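Entry 14. Structure prediction run on the chain below.
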Amino acid sequence: MLFANVLVDTFIAGGHIMWPILGCFIVCCVVLAERTIAWTSLAKRSDSKRLNAAYDAIVAGDFAKAEHLSNAPGDPFLRTVHAGITRAHISLLGAMQLEASGEIEKADKRLWLLATFITLAPLLGLLGTVTGIKNSFDVLGGEELSQTKITGGIGEALIATACGLGIAILCLIPYNYFNRCLVHFRMRLERTINHVELLAESAKHNGSDLADFSREFAASAPAREKPPALSK
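Output returned:
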């Protein structure tokens, strides 16, 4: 309770600018929590063993097995491979790049909010500094309690500045970490695409054409999606 009272008193002493600073803090905490959960979930959903097994099936020309192994909606790397296998008759590389771009867009989600508040929060703190100092100068004169009001204005300036800088510091390290994760994620997707393309070419030289399998797979799609007939 004592700590809560100190926080409330400090917040009030920071002036009206503390409300938008508090809004920045809440949004940053929500984004940090959401992104942490998203990246942790991505690490758990990635199955490198299954991906390597799909690679082996492609180079061996067993595209049906590769399609089955890569049909994993939760794994972005396997999903990219599956897009290439099932659309190779249209464009193997184009299909995988299109799928990968969607995965990167999901991974980059809401990072712009952190980047915005890393810049905005210190600026709000600086604005609080300006208003606090202004309030101090406004009370200069013959008022009986002017000294108390002057120190209160200076305190308001320091609290707002400290809180704005604190939010920026809180967000900066996670923001850079998430950006690093995004770069690594993009590189892994690019390696996956290049690997599948090379393996498909190797299988083609050995007499197995992925485009032929993809064409047959696409042609059989209506039959696979057709519901079973009702028994009489």
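The CA atoms of residues 118 and 168 lie 4 Å apart.
Filed with the rest of this week's runs.
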